[in-house]
Structure formats: structure tokens, C-alpha cells
Amino acid sequence: MQFDHILIRFGEMALKGKNRKHFERQLLENVQYRLHGFKKAVVKKTRGRMYVLLNGEDPHQVMKACQQVFGIYSLSFAIHTENDVEQLKEAVLSAIREEKGARTFKISAKRADKSFPVSSDELNPMLGGHILRNVDGISVDVHQPDVELKVEIRHEGAYVTAGDYRGAGGLPIGSTGKSMIMLSGGIDSPIAGYLTMKRGVEIEAVHFHSPPYTSERAKQKVLDLAQELSVYGKRIKVHVVPFTEIQQKIYRELPDSYGMTIMRRMMMRIAESIAKEEGALAITTGESLGQVASQTMESMNTINEVTNYPVIRPLVTMDKLEIIDIAKKIGTYDISIRPYEDCCTIFVPKEPKTKPDRDKTIAIEQSADFTEDLEKALGAREVVHIDGKEASKQTEDFSDLF
Ligand code: ATP
Ligand code: MG
């Protein structure tokens, strides 16, 4: 016998009262999306639980893929048998043999189907004895076993489960609304997107592109990052906004020192307009307090002034090294470090205001009219649809990420 199922448990979601059905349906859809490449696997839902029927797919590969789906708290391998003692004996033996390196074990049997003639108290020693007789170098430890084999006798058959693997946690993407992420080609914003998705938020992305100062390669890099993110959840729509003319106008018509602050206010306005059009109720950025001139408290306050949308900044209190750790784990780091030009790094004033004054910024900005320029940029945007199913994603062990 082999592991033929993966058992999926969801924690936090179960607390959500009336929404529970909606959350479960979304999780089912997301697991199906993530397992797209495993053609034979089938996902099914029972009360309060979910199973993947492997149908011959590799249990370990499927386990790794499931561990990346938000909304899952823990997972186990399982073998499904009929309610039959001989089959159960064979199943516990196969399960323990899969747990290589285990020196101690415990059997915990539970009989939900009372018509099954053997009680749980009788099953534990019966199945445990079978393992002891057939496996060398293993003993029972009921307090701190290396492996606990759970045996559950249900009406529809029995499950022998092994191992307790950690899931990605969070909530199923698509269950709590949508946010518009401002996605650059840097290290930070993809991680901000990933952490926003962790709380069940679907994301769309806006990217500001300044040809000919920024190249097609720089744009492609952002699309590649979106592709990497889309593996974890849903398809992602990326809005690529031409930003050159606005930048040139700021550079030409406004004082140098306030250029960076005003450029970021323009970005925020455009992000808000697209969010409104697309039904996103928040904006996400990769800002981290104090990291660069535009991310001082004064800058963030002045830039934020142009929108009353909630701005989600998952990285605001994180150090760069913590952000890099996540980037390496989720596979965005290698893309982010490809050399590229960002629109924010061209037209950078020699001495940008690190502590812009809010009222002064507003006064300076009003000396030029950007209404038409903003509309033009919005209208000229290119929309690219990214589908994570097409990504060839290596699966890593995520259990120590959070
Ligand atoms: P990142 O690594 O995400 O680029 P950063 O540390 O380089 O961040 P900045 O360049 O100051 O910081 O950008 C701050 C935030 O502004 C980014 O995290 C991102 O959300 C947004 N942003 C910057 N450049 C762009 C761009 N070209 N298009 C869309 N959003 C951008
Ligand atoms: Mg950047």
C-alpha cells in the first residue's frame, strides 16, 4: 500500500461563522488551481476537511505544492482502506515504512462508525503489535512518539494518517477582497504582494514604465515577478502604465527637490484610479519605514495625502534581511536581482527632500496642472494577464517561513 490521499486541515477559516462555506469553496478552487500540473489528482471536500486523492501522483510533490496554498494550516499523508482489520494492519505497516528514520511511534485509533466490531482500545494494541512484529528497531512511545499514526474508522471507510506538516497559514486568496499592488522590479514589492495574498486578498498590479529610459527587459522582469506570485493563488492582471511624460513634466516644471515626492503622489493617484475601476478596495506597496528617502515618516505622510484608500504596507516594520529571506524562499529573489532600470531611479534629483513639508508640496504641485497627463497615462496603459498555471515552479519546503 502507498499513501493515496493528502488530508488538508484549515484552522482560522473554520472560525468565520457564516462565511465558512464561502471560504471553503474558495480554498477548494485554489487547491485545484495549484495542483493543475498534477493531472490525476482530485480534490474533494467533506465536512470541515479536504482531501486530495492522489490517483498515482507523487505524494511528496503534491504535499509540497499544497503547503504553498494559503488557508491551509496542516496536512498529513493518508491511506484509505475499507473498514477491515487486515487492510488496516497493512496500511499502518506501509505508513510507518514511509516514515523513514522514525524510532518510536504511537497508534491513536478513533471509531466514529460504531458498527465496526473492534473498539479503539482494542485496535491500538492490535495494530501497534502488528508493526512491532514486522519492523525492526522501532518501539512504542505514547508520550513523545516520532510518528503518530491516526486511524479513523468512518462510515465511508477508514483513514490511516501519518505526519503533521505545516501549511502556509493565512486565508484562501480571493476570500477577503482585492488590492491593487504597486509592483516594481525590486525585491520588496513582490514580497508585499505575497504577504497581502496571505490574508486572502486577490491582487492586481500596476507598474510604471518609462520608455525609452526603462527597457522592455525591465518590463518583462515585472511580468516575470507577477508570474511567480500568481503561482500562489490566482491569475494576476498587470496594468503597465506609461509614465515618461509625467516624469518629464515634473522635471521640467517643478523644483527639483520636490520632484521625487510629487512623482510618487502621481503614482499613488493613478494606482487609486485603476483600483477604483477594477473594484479593488486597497492599495499595496513595498515600502519599509526609513529604507530610502521616499520612505521616511514625512514622505509617507505627504505621499499618502492624495488617497483615502487604505494603503497596505506589509513590509513597513521589516528589515531588508527579513524581506530577502522571504524573497529567496518564494522564488522572487533571483528575478528581482536581475539588473534593470526603474522609473524611480531616472530623473532622481541630486538632493531629494527626505522630509517634505506637506503644505509646501501641495502648493508646489498646484503650480502645474496634471489632470490631462494623468488621464492620458491611464488611458494608454497596457493590460497583461498572467496565469500561474503556466509557470514551471520548483517546490520548496516552506514550513519554516512563518
Ligand atoms: P521595491 O524593492 O519594491 O522596488 P524599494 O525599496 O526599491 O522597493 P522604492 O523604489 O522607493 O523602494 O519604491 C517604494 C514602493 O513604490 C515599491 O515597493 C513599490 O510598491 C512602489 N514602486 C516603486 N517603483 C515602482 C514602479 N516602477 N511601478 C510600480 N510601483 C513602484
Ligand atoms: Mg524600487
From TrEMBL:
Alphabetically ordered keywords of this record: ATP-binding, Cytoplasm, Nucleotide-binding, RNA-binding, Thiamine biosynthesis, Transferase, tRNA-binding
Highest taxon above the source species: Bacteria
Enzyme class label: transferase
GO molecular function, one term: CCA tRNA nucleotidyltransferase activity
Listed EC numbers: 2.8.1.4
Main localization, broad class: cytoplasm
InterPro entries according to UniProt: Rossmann-like_a/b/a_fold (IPR014729), ThiI_AANH (IPR020536), ThiI_fer (IPR054173), ThiI_N (IPR049961), THUMP_dom (IPR004114), THUMP_ThiI (IPR049962), tRNA_STrfase (IPR003720), tRNA_sulfurtransferase_ThiI (IPR050102)
Gene3D superfamilies referenced in this protein's UniProt entry, alphabetically: 3.30.2130.30, HUPs
GO BP terms: thiamine biosynthetic process; thiamine diphosphate biosynthetic process; thiazole biosynthetic process; tRNA 4-thiouridine biosynthesis
Catalytic reaction list: [ThiI sulfur-carrier protein]-S-sulfanyl-L-cysteine + a uridine in tRNA + 2 reduced [2Fe-2S]-[ferredoxin] + ATP + H(+) = [ThiI sulfur-carrier protein]-L-cysteine + a 4-thiouridine in tRNA + 2 oxidized [2Fe-2S]-[ferredoxin] + AMP + diphosphate; [ThiS sulfur-carrier protein]-C-terminal Gly-Gly-AMP + S-sulfanyl-L-cysteinyl-[cysteine desulfurase] + AH2 = [ThiS sulfur-carrier protein]-C-terminal-Gly-aminoethanethioate + L-cysteinyl-[cysteine desulfurase] + A + AMP + 2 H(+)
GO-annotated cellular components: cytosol
Compartments where located: Cytoplasm
Pathway terms, separated by semicolons: Cofactor biosynthesis; thiamine diphosphate biosynthesis
All copies of domain THUMP, residue ranges: 60-164
Entries under SMART domains matching the protein: THUMP
Binding site for ATP: 182-183, 207-208, 264, 286, 295
Pfam families: ThiI, ThiI_fer, THUMP
Function: Catalyzes the ATP-dependent transfer of a sulfur to tRNA to produce 4-thiouridine in position 8 of tRNAs, which functions as a near-UV photosensor. Also catalyzes the transfer of sulfur to the sulfur carrier protein ThiS, forming ThiS-thiocarboxylate. This is a step in the synthesis of thiazole, in the thiamine biosynthesis pathway. The sulfur is donated as persulfide by IscS.
Family named by the database record: Belongs to the ThiI family.
Record-given protein name: Probable tRNA sulfurtransferase
Organism: Salimicrobium halophilum
Gene name linked to the record: thiI
